[in-house]
Design goal:
Order of helices and strands: HEEEHHEHEEHEEEHEEHEHHEHHEH
CATH superfamily of the largest domain: Domain of unknown function (DUF4445)
Strand order of the largest sheet: 3-2-1-4-6-5
Shape: globular
CATH class of the largest domain: Alpha Beta
Number of helices: 12
Distance between the termini: 46 Å
Number of domains: 2
CATH architecture of the largest domain: 2-Layer Sandwich
CATH topology of the largest domain: Nucleotidyltransferase, domain 5
Largest sheet: 6 strands, mixed
Strand content: 15-25%
Low-confidence stretches: 1-39
Mean pLDDT: 86
């Protein structure tokens, strides 16, 4: 299997060489194991059992696995690879279509299960432990990924009214191990987002805050007035160009906007720079970023409006996901991807989904509580929402004005 690059681009939590590794919530989950929901076991205590456990984040693009000593909470090994389902389709919509028959669904299930089994074996080998000592696991991912992992038909997720009859939050046996699958919120707001909420202390009580989990799919949560709102929108591959980190693309566009080479409409006024040797920023890249950032900004705007919260009232913005983990908040605000708040109020989380899964592994008493948390989230539907469409068109313009709607 192809390993993801050792850079924040993949941000699987498994590379260990990310510049933010020292503060990555995935890597400190076992060291400090902060309890994020009140009344759980005190910080620093360990599970009353021997053996080894693993946490997994099944991303649309990458797979990440972290191996822990359950009694001490020690992180033993981390592994990551490209999700082999990308060979079938790069996005969840294509995979839903590709799993349309029982045989195709079984193939999709085997692809991811075999890859996860290989990652677990590799992690055990690196840690110098016997696979038989692995006694528990937590596997998170978006709703489609968990359907494919468990060989459940994902077809209803891709058809109107886009409802999921199964939202996980249950025990299972996968890759020969007992595992727990965290709950999903809806068809396109998955268990990975619930784990990110857990990682960020994102409970309903607290000041207005935003959590943006940005990758191939963008899932966004807003806390306001004692409620958590959540929505999702497609970002697609706009933030990735072969050989270049998505954050570098956004940084380049932000610089060009400031210098006037790119106008607010996205039109280029001069020669565009090289992003890397042999890779020049093209008008097609700019257009793709415009589309993706407009979708994310419009989704955020719809939620802010529904909650009655102004962008400048946000006390915190958390950034997570394969793209969000390496995002420069200043560049994101310049292009209008996120609201323009002081940089001191923006917090990168790395792979928050894997970090949350690790917490649920080490603190299993939190599992019923996150089921309750997921059920309490108010899902904001964007499909067929005329307000979203109008805001999307307005947000196609680069700049902080994306939120002055």
């Amino acid at each position: 299997m192809k390993e993801p690059p050792d850079s924040p681009k993949a941000c699987s939590g498994a590379c260990g060489s990310c510049p933010r590794a020292a503060s990555c919530p995935t890597r400190r989950a076992a060291a400090s194991a902060p309890v994020l929901l009140a009344g759980a076991r005190p910080e620093g205590s360990a599970r009353d059992c021997d053996g080894v456990g693993f946490a997994v984040d099944i991303g649309s693009t990458t797979l990440a696995l972290a191996l822990y000593d359950l009694r001490t909470g020690t992180l033993l090994a981390e592994k990551g690879c490209i999700n082999p389902q990308t060979a079938v389709s790069p996005d969840v919509v294509g995979r839903i279509a590709a799993a349309g028959s029982p045989s195709a669904l079984q193939r999709m299930q085997r692809l991811v299960a075999d890859a996860l089994a290989s990652l677990l074996a590799s992690a055990c080998s690196s840690a110098g432990i016997q696979p038989a000592s692995v006694v528990d696991g937590v596997m998170t991912g978006n709703t489609v990924m968990l359907h494919l992992l468990t060989a459940r038909d994902p077809t209803p997720l891709g058809q109107i009214p886009f409802r999921a009859s199964w939202l996980a939050g249950c025990d299972d046996v996968l890759i020969g191990r007992p595992v727990w699958l965290p709950p999903c919120i809806g068809a396109f707001v998955g268990a990975d987002h619930v784990c990110a909420l857990l990682s960020a202390d994102f409970t309903p009580k607290g000041p207005p805050a935003l959590l943006c989990d940005l990758g191939t799919n963008a899932e966004v949560a807003l806390r306001a007035n004692g409620t958590i709102y959540a929505t999702s929108t497609a970002a697609g591959p706009a933030f990735e160009v072969a050989g270049v980190r998505g954050s570098e693309i956004l940084d380049a566009i932000a610089r060009l906007l400031k210098s006037g080479v790119i106008s607010e409409t996205g039109a280029s006024q001069g020669e565009l720079p090289f992003l890397a040797p042999g890779i020049r920023l093209a008008n097609s890249h700019i257009r793709a970023v415009q589309l993706a950032k407009a979708a994310v900004a419009a989704g955020i705007s719809v939620m802010l409006d529904e909650a009655g919260v102004a962008p400048d009232e946000l006390e915190s913005i958390y950034l997570a996901g394969g793209f969000g983990c390496a995002l420069n908040p200043s560049s994101a605000a310049v292009v209008g991807l996120i609201p323009n708040v002081p940089s001191a109020r923006t917090f990168p989380l790395g792979n928050a989904a894997l970090a949350g899964a690790a917490r649920l592994l080490l603190f299993p008493e939190l599992r019923p509580r996150v089921v309750e948390l997921a059920r309490s989230v108010k899902l904001v539907e964007l499909g067929g929402n005329e307000d979203f469409f109008d805001r999307f068109i307005d947000a196609m313009t680069f700049g902080p004005s994306s939120f002055d709607l």
